[in-house]
Write a structure and sequence with these properties.
- The chain starts with 7 loop residues before the first strand and ends with a helix.
- It contains 17 helices and 10 strands.
- Mean pLDDT is 87; it is low at 1-6 and 249-256.
- It has 445 residues and is of the alpha/beta class.
- A 6-stranded mixed sheet has the order 6-7-8-3-9-10, with helices on both faces. A 4-stranded antiparallel sheet has the order 2-1-4-5, covered by helices on one side.
- A hairpin with a 2-residue loop joins strand 9 and strand 10.
- 47% of the residues lie in helices and 15% in strands.
- It is elongated.
- Helix 12 runs antiparallel to helix 13.
- Bound molecules: adenosine-5'-diphosphate and magnesium ion (MG).
- The site of adenosine-5'-diphosphate has 11 residues, from strand 2 and helix 1.
Length: 445
């Protein structure tokens, strides 16, 4: 099948890998795995040690022959390949990166990078110049003439990424690529992978047992005991699809080298891409400063929390499930709130939601009484008969659209001597804002 007709870059059906089949030490490393990956996704295979992650990755790389099942890559079943076809596939279509680098110690860095092209008979100068280009891009051009044992782990992994890229594969397979690195190198290597995914549009399939990496993923495959537990398509992926058209117009940025400082930022702020440098950067900065100062949780947690809240409002999660989801740890797919904050937060949302649901526009008078009672419980308002009437009447008028929001607030703010409610301005503002919020929640157009 020609490439453009396949929607999914990889389709895995009923994949089973059994080691020592039929013997007493039989291991079912993969148990009926079904997966579909789209092109240009960053897929993370996540699970504990021994769960079958490497077996899955090696199967996609055609190193492993399935006991049963098929793996289609770009429309072809790779298990039908003979050994020549397999080695071409491994050189052209997939680039592999390993935890232990797999560099050849007797070859200089530059020659290690060139290696994948030796088999294709590309002339020496051409392949060296391509290899130098990658080393330069990853800031290790000055290591080209050294041997792998004379450079750091982080540098070695950069070399192996350069090597994986030499034949321009569409797919990068990475098995715990930062598992052996110090934290600074982890950061740099992840930044490179992010760049390859977002700028070079490589599909990345990365194996990890480190939950800190999950923020990078478009799709997370949770695996345990050789079985897929769940596949989560992240918000990042859904937004990326939505923005695809926009990004096409920014294709110019693809040619420009990304400065290091921006690359670092792109790593820590997952919503930041080279597409929003320039004029879009100021609103982005504003948002980051704001949320840092105003919110005790990270942007990632905010996104997740909002997603669960949406499900709560849509009725697909109940209050208890909403709480469970935001209280659950990030590793388990929750938003990682501490228990007390989660409880308080969910209660607050539920209070608004339940109050809003009770607003009945066919009975504005009754609804106004209810809302009045809601506000006098929440705010210090003197409970004189006069004030209760002013509050109730002005709410009723607001529900009937006889009062605009600002007029409603003005009545709450105005002194009693001028037929207002005599609240202080901040309380008046808060109540007016809350009433609008309730009206918004109630709205179901
Ligand atoms: P992970 O990468 O998640 O740590 P692996 O895919 O390496 O897990 O291993 C899955 C299971 O298969 C483990 O129980 C492992 O011991 C077993 N296994 C892996 N490779 C082989 C092999 N070549 N022969 C026998 N058992 C293997
Ligand atoms: Mg492994």
């Amino acid at each position: 099948m020609p490439k453009k007709e396949t929607k999914n870059i990889i389709e895995i059906k009923n994949l089973n890998v059994i080691y020592h089949k039929g013997e007493s030490n039989q291991v079912r490393a993969l148990d009926d795995v079904n997966l579909e990956f789209e092109a240009e996704e960053w897929i993370i295979i996540f699970g504990p040690s021994g769960c079958g992650k490497s077996t899955l990755l090696n199967s996609i790389a055609s190193f492993e022959t399935p006991t049963r099942g098929t793996i289609n890559v770009l429309g072809k079943n790779i298990n039908d390949f003979d050994s020549d076809e397999k080695s071409i596939y491994r050189r052209r279509t997939v680039g592999m990166i390993f935890q232990s680098f797999h560099l050849i110690n007797s070859l200089k860095v530059l020659d290690n990078v060139c290696l994948p092209q030796v088999f294709f008979g590309v002339n020496l100068e051409k392949r060296r110049s391509l290899a130098r280009g990658f080393l330069e891009r990853f800031d290790i051009a000055n290591q080209a003439e050294k041997y792998p044992s004379d450079i750091s782990g982080g540098q070695r992994q950069k070399v192996s990424i350069a090597r994986a890229l030499m034949n321009q594969p569409e797919i990068i397979l990475a098995d715990e690529p930062v598992g052996n690195l110090d934290s600074k190198s982890v950061y740099n290597v992840m930044a490179i992978l992010k760049e390859l995914n977002e700028l070079d549009k490589k599909t990345i399939i990365m194996v990890t047992h480190d939950a800190n990496h999950l923020v990078f993923a478009d799709r997370i495959v949770y695996i345990k005991d050789g079985k897929i537990q769940k596949v989560v398509v992240t918000k990042k992926r859904r937004e990326a699809k939505f923005n695809k058209e926009k990004k096409k117009k920014m294709v110019l940025t693809k040619q420009t080298k990304i400065p290091n400082d921006l690359r670092l930022l792109m790593n820590s702020f997952k919503d930041l891409s080279s597409a929003n440098i320039g004029q879009l950067l100021t609103p982005f900065k504003v948002k980051q400063i704001f949320s840092h100062l105003m919110l005790p949780i990270t942007n990632y947690q905010t996104d997740l929390t909002q997603r669960y809240m949406k499900n709560y409002l849509l009725g697909t999660l109940n209050e208890k499930q909403f709480f469970d989801q935001i209280n659950k740890s990030l590793e388990d797919g929750g938003a990682g709130w501490d228990k007390r904050s989660a409880k308080h937060f969910v209660e607050q949302v539920a209070v608004f939601y339940k109050e809003a649901e009770k607003i009945d526009y066919s009975e504005p008078f009754k609804s106004a009484i209810r809302l009045k009672n809601f506000f006098i419980k929440r705010y210090p308002i003197k409970k004189t008969e006069y004030r209760m009437n002013v509050l109730k009447n002005s709410i009723e008028s607001r529900l009937n659209e006889e009062l605009a929001r600002d007029d409603f607030q003005a009545i709450l703010d105005r002194p009693v001597s001028e037929e207002g409610l005599g609240l202080n301005s901040r309380t008046a503002e808060k109540i007016a804002r809350e009433l609008e919020l309730l009206i918004l929640i109630r709205y179901s157009g």
